[in-house]
Amino acid sequence: MDRQQEFVLRTLEERDIRFIRLWFTDVIGTLKSVAIAPAELEQAFSEGIGFDGSAIEGLSRVTESDMLLQPDPSTFQVLPWRSDGEHQGTARMFCDILTPDGQPARSDPRHVLKRALDRAAQHGFTFYTHPEIEFYLFEGPLQRGAEPVPVDYVGYFDNFPGGTTHDFRRSAISVLESMGISVEFSHHEGGPGQNEIDLRYADALTTADNIMTFRTVLKEVAGEMGLFASFMPKPLPGQPGSGMHTHLSLFDGDANAFYEAGAEYQLSTVGRQFIAGILRHAPEITAVTNQFVNSYKRLWAGGEAPNYICWGHNNRSALIRVPMYKPNKAQSVRAEYRALDSSANPYLAFAVLLSAGLRGIEQNYELPDGAEDDVWALTDAERRAMGIEPMPQSLEHAIAIMEDSELVAETLGEGVFDFFLRNKRQEWADYRAQVTPFELQRYLPLL
After folding, report:
1. In percent, how much of the chain has pLDDT > 70?
2. How far is 443 from 293, CA to CA, in rounded Å?
3. Ordered domains of the chain (ranges, CATH)
4. Nearest Cα to 289, choosing from 222, 233, 214?
5. Which residue has the higher pLDDT, 250 or 62?
6. Angle CA(132)–CA(246)–CA(155) in degrees, nearest 5?
7. What does DSSP assign to residue 150?
């Protein structure tokens, strides 16, 4: 037993923790959980906890159903809303999924990201991400099929005295930080009831775990206030969608591999090649970064959603932007990918973004000229003259492109790749067979 496991076991006794929730996700990114008693945890560390993998979407076939959950002690945190004096103490840990012979399950989304991170490590890189997570707050309880009612009708950065969202963000951030998740900013966004909370940068695996925790915390806090937090990309017609703009960087030890003193925007050759890789492979990975029918209503509904494949400095109409808030700080040079939405599976999304960027480095992709004009204001002819192509315009379109992608198939692995395609084809078929209210009935209660 290692020191981290010993710390967890000691903390359970000191804090009188009665239940440990073991968390993991399915391929679509739905959080799954099983609770065990403290007496079972030592065995869970050494042998894992058995479960039926075939009952989890995309995880295994019925003929390979026996799976094990291996708790990751480094992710141990007490759940504040279940350990407040009124409830018996509860903690959680994320798990890796193993086969009975102790090998990582190929369809475990967390393992998919770990494989991509191992590939980056072979180049000497650590991959860091920093998400800006947008979401809507609605009056609760939500009714299936009914249009949700926002908690307010104020706008971007508005300071609304006595507003519900002030109290909500303060409560949610307090819970997040009590669980070791650092928050950088929070504010009201442009839509009615729309908010944004930005997590501080961390390595991609930690960030992905934090995003899954973030969604759960916000839903818990919202429920306690009689509200509903939605991460649906486009819950309200005519209002802004919810994105998850994510800042990306590679570090070589303590040095930012994207930084080069004296280069244009201080962006190194590695940084330029990484961005070029994402741009070239953006159409292939979009079904993963924007996985729902509703995602494309955000991308193609106007506002600040990126719908053309280009990059730029300080240009929010571009798919990738190179911000320079602090031009003299080497650690701050990064790329911001703006298509990702708040309902993505973060493990798979980070894996395909990293793989696309690494492909650019490995094959020395050339970064095209940046777009410094407002891409949305250009005509189709002007965009074509600049070599700017559109993003996939529907889930059906994104699936068709992904289907032929060697890069995505290699990154996700055969099992995840095949299930993801089947699941998304079925989703598109279901959508085509239904009217638009189908989206509210299916997604809002889930997201």
Report:
1. 93
2. 10
3. 3-103 (3.10.20.70), 116-443 (3.30.590.10)
4. 233
5. 250
6. 30
7. B
